[in-house]
Design brief:
The chain is α+β, with helices and mostly antiparallel strands. It folds into three domains: about 35 residues; about 180 residues, Jelly Rolls (Sandwich); about 110 residues, no CATH class. The chain has 13 helices and ten strands. A hairpin with a 5-residue loop joins strand 1 and strand 2.
Length: about 375
Amino acid sequence: MKEDIEKPQSEGIDTDNHIDATQSSADKPDIIIDVRQYQTLLEILDNPRKALKAMGAIIVLTIAIFAALAFVIISIKSFYPYNEIKTNMFGATTMENEDVELTYWLFNTAEMWANSGIRVEKGDILTIRASGKSNTAIHHLIEQVENNQQLTHNWAGTEGHSRNSNRSKFRIMPERASDALIMQVIPEDVVIYDDHFYNNKFISPNYADDCSQDENYTSYNNYYFIGKERTDLRIVQDGILHFTVNDIVLTHNCVSSIQAYNNTLIKKKLNLSESEYNTFMRKVATLESLINDTNNIDEITEIVEDRNFANNCKNWIKYNKESVNVGKHPVALDSTLYKHLDVSHDNALPFYNEMHYYRDNNYYNAWFDDNVGSFLIVIEKQKNKN
């Protein structure tokens, strides 16, 4: 019994494979972590020479990228050098960079002193170039095209026609070619369609014989001849650029001056004494005053049936075409006078003509409404004033 009690309690346990808990940690196996994904990078970082070469390559690559981007930007700027593009309410498109403003605007030649909306300041230096075609007698154009006739009033460029006539002295700039492009600077606070505007210096000079035709006169009225090109144009006042073709603005002063000048030219050809001419003109004035008077048919009849008066009227119509060539009244045939006379438009002169119509209706731009065409205007403004 005693021997049974002293048997080891570990019986049945494999003591050869048992690891004692008190065994030293130094006898335990090592754990190895092998990183392979960034092995090349780690090798470079472990090698100072390779690390320097890698940094150099990165710097060179970065410089190359920035150089390529700079080349692209400079190339684009060389073809399209403007930083900002804007369009005003009148259709003028302006592109600008640090030194220059470049504006493009399409001008309708039928407009009298067309507002471009382009602002300038005193001291600005402009270079203005223009191209295009216009025709200032659309009614002749239509008639001759319909009849397959050669044009007698040809299309004109921005430098206009060198054509001179008895009407030349009444153009906005009498010393310059007819229908050429001209410009002026109008203060921004001037109302464009106000009656006062049409009767001051911004519309036209006084159409009197004492109008000077030298450069001082032109500058005083702030008119600039542009034509095909005007370079280094220095602006003398703040305002807005307005453009028109060099035609005739029919203000009240202009209408009166044209009539007086036309009468003077015709008078020389009628070969009448002073008293005969004055008598004739008094009868003309009487008929003008009775143009729509139904209560004075007898007075009208007495005048128009006078043989001398009738002959003078026929001669007047003949010589008118050789003078300023004042046209017919557009609605005169509806008047009491012409219904009573039973005459055609050819007999509507001299006692009621187009000048009466323009004056009575304040129709200042009548000879501009007869225009057709357009000019492309390019305005270069230097930002740095000298």
